[in-house]
Design goal:
Helix content is about 20%, strand content about 40%. By secondary structure, the chain is an alpha+beta fold. It has two domains: about 30 residues; about 160 residues, no CATH class.
Length: about 200
């Protein structure tokens, strides 16, 4: 007896098998939310161009559980300023990479957030929600000195965020064989502005 399956049926079955083989519920893979950059604000002080932004949907339930089990989470943020040009490639004015790290101390039941780019580089809280907020809200970030920009010119601010890959001790590699749920990377988000 010969069976004939439509392409749609094969796609659905393959997706279900992949979800089940990676320990995810079938609906969880289909409903996977992607992280995104939101609420971008560009302003300036007397000397610097400043940016504020949020990363939405950065933490999944499995990532939260991994953090609570002692695996640190590090977010990298990539920020660049370009000057658009019609006849040639856009000119890169400045670029910056910053990192924020979240670690859980199970003995004290506290979260330590390290943000070396911020004036208050390290903070401690007993609330995961507060730790998540501090990890995903970037505020008062100096992007570029104003002296590197020209008045009344158009520029682009480009922002991207990603979760750094986890390096586990060798004896845990077989326990966490497949960590795709630990990966996220946003698309580049671009804002045009005139200085």
């Amino acid at each position: 007896m010969k069976y004939h399956f439509s392409k749609k049926t094969v796609l659905v079955l393959t997706t279900l098998l992949l979800a089940l083989s990676h320990g995810a519920a079938p609906g969880e893979l289909m409903a996977k939310k992607t992280a995104s950059i939101e609420n971008i604000i560009i302003t300036n002080t007397r000397d610097d161009l400043i940016s504020y932004f949020d990363v939405n949907q950065a933490f999944t339930k499995k990532m939260k559980q991994a953090v609570l089990n002692g695996i640190p989470a590090t977010f990298s943020f990539f920020i660049a300023i370009y000057r658009p040009r019609d006849a040639w490639f856009d000119k890169k004015i400045a670029e910056k990479e910053i990192r924020s790290t979240l670690e859980y101390n199970s003995l004290k039941e506290t979260f330590t957030i390290t943000r070396p780019w911020n004036s208050s580089a390290t903070s401690v809280t007993d609330s995961f929600e507060e730790a998540e907020r501090q990890m995903t809200e970037i505020d008062n970030l100096r992007v570029v000195p104003l002296e590197e920009l020209t008045r009344n010119e158009q520029y682009q601010l480009r922002i991207k965020a990603e979760l750094d890959r986890v390096t586990l001790p060798l004896y845990l590699h077989h326990v966490f064989f497949f960590l795709s749920w630990w990966d996220f990377e946003t698309n580049w988000h671009t804002i045009d502005f005139v200085y």
